[in-house]
Amino acid sequence: MWPRKQEEIGRNRNSGFVGFMDRKSADMALKEMDGFILLGYEMKVCWGKYVPIPPKPIFENGNVTKKPSTGFPFSATIPTEVQSSHLGMITASDKLDNYSQTPEVHVIIPHDIRIKKLIHRTVEYVIRYGSKFEELLMAKELGSQRWKLYSLLNGDQLDSWKTEMFYMFSEGPIWIPPPLPYSDNIGEEHSESSEEEENEKMEMEKNKLGRVATGRLCKRLRKLDMTRGSIARTMVFAIERAEASDQIAEIITKYKFDSTTDKKSMIARLYLVSDILNNSSAPVSNAWKLRQSFEKKLEAFFEVFVTSYREIDARLKAEQFRRSVLTVLAIWESLLVFPTEFISKLALGFFQNHLDV
């Protein structure tokens, strides 16, 4: 909260910033609180700048009950949903005859910086003092602490790790690492020269983007616009690194991309995806993998477009946005990029007149 300095205190006013998990809640708060009298002062509320949204809210209004113990180590749970291997669609497990009964541990990075520092310090001590020290902590161990230790001991970096599901030990639960964090400044410390990236690649696991390459891709996405050159350069960058297709698709469809993103930037991102898909048949090593990798991500990617479309108040702007998206899907259908059924599913949200499925 402000003011912080004595000079600001003399102005006899306070100010602060509040973040919400979705735009609808923020809009409701703005309408309810703007002009509200609090302790004799009239509140003035307006929109602030965009901030990254965490996986879970730091504060929830109302009583939040603690989840009961699952009975498995590290609070592992039996999955209630399974992933379709073809379309990336989520299907309820009770509708399937055979589905996984293996417990899963979903690792969540704590938002509290004190807890995060405690985990890092604990991992340092376990590495330094060995199994005897670890045994003393087992009774109170956090899942994120165990995963971080395992991750570092298997060659991952403090701020970069493998995101694939894995078994930590035989007949144990499946561990699901958290997604990689991408900060606003990632890539700024690296030059456009490929020498630094090539040196890192020699030490990296095959089929993975290193920190330098990831930073360079994120930097391109931050500067991406509707110009042909901007989209083409980023497309070529992705095609040339197609061996890391899953990671490329993950970054392009999620990095700094949600329903609050500028509409022109959203369309530019869609044009980029389309350009990559149209060139995935190029005679470049592993380029064909990009189509498979993007297919797994497109359903969630287009849900963001649908949400953004429904939040546009002006009918003309909403229709222009809708036509831009549907034009791309029509091109995909004419070029047989994906099956017609899959493309129709992506387009469905634009034909429902703001009604839920």
Number of domains: 3
Approximately how much beta-strand content do the residues carry? 5-15%
The CATH topology label of the largest domain is Serine Threonine Protein Phosphatase 5, Tetratricopeptide repeat
Q: Give the ordered list of helices and strands.
A: HHEEEEEHHHEEHHHHHHHH
| CATH architecture title of the largest domain | Alpha Horseshoe
The whole-number mean of residue pLDDT values reads 77
What is the level 1 CATH name of the largest domain?
A: Mainly Alpha
Number of strands: 7
**Cα distance spanning the termini:** 41 Å
Low-confidence stretches: 82-98, 186-191
Helix content: 40-55%
Number of helices: 13
Largest sheet: 3 strands, mixed
Across the major sheet, the strand order is 5-7-6
Shape: globular
Instruction: Specify Rg, calculated over alpha carbons.
Output: 23 Å
Structural class: mainly alpha
GO molecular function: RNA binding
Domain SURP motif: 118-162
Keywords: RNA-binding
Domain CID: 209-354
Features of this protein?
single chain, 357 residues, mainly alpha, Serine Threonine Protein Phosphatase 5, Tetratricopeptide repeat, 3 domains, 45% helix
Report on this structure:
- The protein is mainly alpha-helical.
- It folds into three domains: 1-62, no CATH class; 104-176, no CATH class; 205-350, Serine Threonine Protein Phosphatase 5, Tetratricopeptide repeat (Alpha Horseshoe).
- Helices cover 45% and strands 5% of the residues.
- It is built from 13 helices and seven strands.
- The chain has helices at residues 6-9, 23-33, 113-129, 131-137, 143-153, 195-203, 211-223, 228-240, 245-254, 263-278, 289-310, 315-334, 340-347; strands spanning 37-38, 41-42, 81-83, 90-92, 104-106, 166-167, 174-176.
- The strands form three sheets. Strands 5-7-6 form a three-stranded mixed beta sheet, with no helix packed on it.
- A hairpin with a 6-residue loop joins β3 and β4.
- The two termini are 41 Å apart.
- Residues 185-204 are annotated as: Disordered.
- Keywords: RNA-binding.
